[in-house]
């Protein structure tokens, strides 16, 4: 059975790694925007965008967080592009067990780029606004594709906890905490 | 909760291998902010003048500025402070890049090193985990080389590492502390690190830095970014290309080096080459730069691209450089840019200051040509010019043969060599600070900055007031139109009336009272930056920067939860300025030390110079010896300094003594 095709707006950050000046301003402002209260703290470790960097190899690659996944890939590839070696993971946007990136440092819960959705909405995500080097450009384009389920942040977080502890423990903990409340 | 700062310092005793996390007193932040201000306070409290640079009692402080790691662009500077082997005074040198923000995110404002490790070690700071680790296998390795190996050893590819090379290990008086994209180069603080047997400090952090009033703070940060964007499209007219924009002089991006190559002096700061910059040279140097430069780079959270990745015989990057270090080796050796970029790679790995190292080597060559040093002093010296510089660099960082003498810098080396060598160490401010520039007519503003600046290195004292009048009145009028930065309208008037020739030109214009105010204003901005950790490149150094005296008080207050207004910030900065001076007065700094290089200007005016110094001291609240008066000290809440001076018999009376 084929799923119904539907037109939808795809939001994307177009990355020109050649223009990246390696300043990590995107990491700073992303973490500040998503902090509570908003802009109340900075911490690149909480950022939903990361610069994969290897200065001696002249690698500066901004990558923003995608979906959470419980399992890491079977096998890893390595790409050589213009003489520079990249692990396949460098390009990957997933929050996954193979690495620390895109996880809350305190809780290990997955982080995902939400394009700085807010009310009123921003003209562009903050990382794009902060990058005067022009490495990040925000685009919206119309695409036709299969209707996809979107996973809410809370759902992804709960799923990550379940993967780590098992559903029973998560349910027990939620019950315990909500009683206290 | 503490805002902008973490509220903790890391105290490391290398003699005993002891590490402590110590809560800091918030009151000190209110009095001194952070960075240089609190560093100077710790030195005052804990390092008496009897302690020399290579005493285990000497401290080596890596102090981040108060706003480091906040969203405000370019707040990434760490002020490294210690007693300098070059001057014997309280020295401070700063670095940008990522080390400071990583330290703050790890949960510390400063790392305070004392004692001396029995063997070569490095420090690894990862949030709450702090460890002293063996570094004996890194002995002799380059700064970038060892940093990379440390990252591999720790399995932490993103750790920021500040390290020393051979020069620091061998206590070369102009050894730097290198951090990949930035370095603390001035005053030989790398030698102190080497003396402490500390090869490197690696740091990685994942904690929050809090902002007290987020909305206000982010609004100011956004405004600064918009202004930077605007200025990128609208360079200042009427000034040379490297001074038209923001940041440090954009020498990695701009190929036109006519101004530096024709106005600064070559060799051992002797020869001015007025018709040097030809089309052919421009073509040759541009092609060298474009071949070797791989990418323009920035420090932490800053849009200015002052740095560049330079590749020497590799495809990608062998080191990073910025600013005038592009030319210092080239000009010292009368060579070309290809040589300059190549030897700078070696020098960066060895960890030497790119100002003093080439000058010291050129000084040695001149002594050889003059017959003061002979072939016997330099066995194995290659016959070719460039080869000699590579050879000398190697001897210096290893302290081998004549290198052991030269490693002390031109001032001390000349004394050791004797036979008239002192005449050849002609190029120093305050005895030891290199300045490869010779000019005609005395400039009163620069005279005072050279004499009284305690930062050493003129580029870190000068700033917002144009270096000279523009060629036309119209350009000057256009410049002052949107000059919101000045403390008050008089500054605009002084600049408008300033002329290249005639009655209102140097040395008699700006008048003495105006000169005092201009110098004081420029210096004040640097002292603010050095306490907040903001880069001079967006504040105290370029013309019309995004941050200035009128918007910094609210930015600092919103970030750190302070209640500073403009007079409050001015007062606080004056306190920091006097505390730095107090440290040095206690170490013997006096008026007789406050001199420019003898031959810096062809035309000198002893009477005018004496009056300038008299009036400036008075303006600063110092007596005739340059010592802060009792009244000044009490006004600033530095009573404890006044009492210490009194106990030591240092006169703080208005008139001062003749001695």
Give the structure's gist in a few sentences.
The complex is a heterodimer of chains A (181) and B (659). Chain A has 181 residues and is α+β, with helices and mostly antiparallel strands.
What is this structure's SSE topology?
The complex is a heterodimer of chains A (181) and B (659).
Chain A: E1 5-15, H1 25-33, E2 41-42, E3 49-54, E4 59-64, E5 78-81, E6 84-87, H2 88-91, H3 126-130, E7 136-146, H4 153-165, H5 167-180
Antiparallel strand pairs in A: 1-7, 3-4, 5-6
Helix pairs in contact in A: 4-5
Chain B: E1 8-13, E2 18-23, H1 26-32, H2 35-46, E3 60-64, E4 78-83, E5 90-95, H3 99-106, E6 110-114, E7 121-126, E8 129-134, H4 143-154, E9 160-163, H5 166-169, E10 177-178, E11 183-184, H6 189-195, E12 198-204, E13 209-210, H7 214-233, H8 258-263, H9 279-292, E14 293-297, E15 307-310, E16 319-322, H10 325-332, H11 337-350, H12 356-369, H13 385-398, H14 402-406, H15 409-417, E17 428-429, E18 433-434, E19 439-441, H16 444-452, H17 473-481, H18 489-497, H19 512-532, H20 552-560, H21 566-586, E20 601-603, H22 606-620, H23 630-635, H24 639-648
Parallel strand pairs in B: 1-6, 7-12, 19-20
Antiparallel strand pairs in B: 1-2, 3-4, 3-6, 4-5, 7-8, 9-12, 10-11, 14-15, 15-16, 17-18
Helix pairs in contact in B: 1-2, 2-19, 2-21, 7-20, 10-11, 11-13, 12-13, 16-19, 16-22, 17-18, 19-22
């Amino acid at each position: 059975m084929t799923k119904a095709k539907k037109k939808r707006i795809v939001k994307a950050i177009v990355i020109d790694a050649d223009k990246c000046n390696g300043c990590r301003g995107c990491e700073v402002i992303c973490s500040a925007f998503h902090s509570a209260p908003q802009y109340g703290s900075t911490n690149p470790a909480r950022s939903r965008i990361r610069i994969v960097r290897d200065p001696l190899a002249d690698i500066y690659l901004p990558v923003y967080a995608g979906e959470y996944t419980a399992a890491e890939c079977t096998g890893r590839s390595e790409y050589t592009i213009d003489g520079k070696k990249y692990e396949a993971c460098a390009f990957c946007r997933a929050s996954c067990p193979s690495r620390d990136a895109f996880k809350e440092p305190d809780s290990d819960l997955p982080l995902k780029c939400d394009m700085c959705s807010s009310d009123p909405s921003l003209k562009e995500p903050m990382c794009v606004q902060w990058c005067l080097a022009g490495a990040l450009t925000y685009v919206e384009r119309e695409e036709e594709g299969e209707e996809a389920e979107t996973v809410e942040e809370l759902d992804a977080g709960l799923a990550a906890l379940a993967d780590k502890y098992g559903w029973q423990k998560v349910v027990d903990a939620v019950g315990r905490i909500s009683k206290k409340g | 909760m503490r805002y902008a700062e973490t509220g903790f310092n890391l105290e490391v005793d290398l003699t005993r291998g002891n590490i402590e996390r110590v809560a800091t007193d918030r009151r000190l932040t209110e009095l001194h902010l952070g960075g240089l201000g609190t560093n100077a306070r710790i030195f005052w409290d804990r390092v008496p003048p009897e302690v020399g640079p290579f005493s285990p009692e000497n401290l080596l402080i890596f102090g981040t500025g108060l706003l480091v790691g906040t969203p405000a662009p370019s707040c990434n500077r760490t002020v490294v402070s210690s007693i300098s082997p070059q001057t014997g005074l309280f020295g401070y040198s700063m670095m940008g890049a990522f080390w400071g923000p990583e330290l703050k995110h790890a949960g510390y404002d400063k790392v305070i090193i004392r004692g001396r490790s029995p063997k070569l070690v490095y420090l690894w700071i990862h949030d709450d985990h702090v460890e002293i680790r063996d570094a004996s296998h890194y002995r002799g390795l380059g700064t970038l080389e060892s940093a990379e190996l440390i990252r591999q050893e720790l399995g932490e590819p993103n750790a920021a590492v500040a390290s020393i090379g051979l020069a620091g290990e061998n206590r070369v008086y102009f050894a730097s502390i290198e951090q990949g994209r930035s370095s603390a180069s001035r005053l030989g603080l790398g030698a102190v690190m080497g003396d402490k047997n500390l090869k490197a400090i690696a740091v990685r952090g994942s904690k929050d830095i809090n902002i007290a009033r987020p909305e206000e703070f982010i609004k100011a940060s956004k405004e600064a970014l918009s202004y930077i964007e605007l200025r990128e499209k609208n360079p200042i007219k009427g000034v040379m290309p490297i001074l038209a924009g923001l940041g440090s002089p954009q020498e990695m991006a701009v190929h036109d080096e006519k101004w530096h190559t024709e106005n600064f002096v070559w060799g051992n700061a002797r020869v001015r080459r007025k018709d040097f910059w030809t089309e052919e040279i421009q073509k040759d140097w541009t092609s060298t730069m474009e071949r070797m430069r791989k990418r323009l780079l920035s420090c932490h959270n800053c849009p200015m691209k002052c740095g560049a990745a330079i590749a020497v015989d590799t495809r990608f990057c062998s080191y990073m450089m910025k600013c005038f270090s592009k030319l210092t080796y080239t000009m010292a050796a009368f060579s070309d840019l290809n040589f300059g970029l190549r030897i700078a790679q070696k020098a960066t790995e060895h960890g030497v200051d790119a100002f003093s190292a080439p000058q010291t080597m050129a000084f040695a060559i001149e002594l050889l040509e003059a017959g003061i040093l002979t072939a016997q002093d330099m066995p194995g010296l290659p016959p070719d010019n460039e080869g000699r510089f590579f050879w000398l660099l190697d001897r210096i960082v290893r302290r081998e043969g004549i290198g052991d003498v030269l490693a002390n810098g031109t001032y001390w080396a000349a004394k050791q060599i004797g036979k008239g060598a002192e005449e050849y160490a002609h190029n120093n401010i305050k005895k030891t600070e290199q300045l490869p520039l010779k000019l005609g007519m005395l400039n009163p503003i620069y005279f005072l900055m050279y004499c009284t600046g305690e930062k050493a290195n003129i580029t870190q004292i000068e700033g917002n007031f144009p270096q000279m009048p523009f060629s036309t009145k119209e350009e000057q009028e256009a410049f002052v139109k949107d000059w919101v930065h000045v403390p008050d309208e008089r500054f605009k008037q002084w600049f408008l009336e300033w002329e290249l020739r005639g009655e209102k030109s140097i040395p008699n214009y700006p008048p003495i009272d105006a000169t005092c105010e201009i110098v004081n204003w420029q210096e004040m901005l640097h002292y603010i930056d050095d306490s907040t950790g903001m880069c001079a490149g967006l504040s105290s150094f370029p013309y019309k920067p995004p941050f200035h005296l009128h918007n910094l008080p609210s930015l600092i207050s919103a970030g750190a939860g302070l209640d500073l207004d403009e007079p409050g910030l001015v007062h606080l900065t004056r306190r920091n300025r006097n505390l730095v001076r107090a440290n040095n007065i206690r170490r013997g700094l006096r008026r007789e030390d406050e001199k420019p290089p003898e031959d810096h200007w062809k035309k000198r005016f002893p009477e005018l110079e004496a009056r300038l110094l008299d009036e400036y001291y008075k303006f600063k609240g110092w007596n005739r010896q340059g010592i802060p008066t009792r009244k000044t000290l009490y006004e600033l809440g530095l009573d404890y300094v006044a009492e210490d001076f009194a106990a030591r018999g240092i006169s703080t009376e208005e008139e001062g003594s003749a001695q």
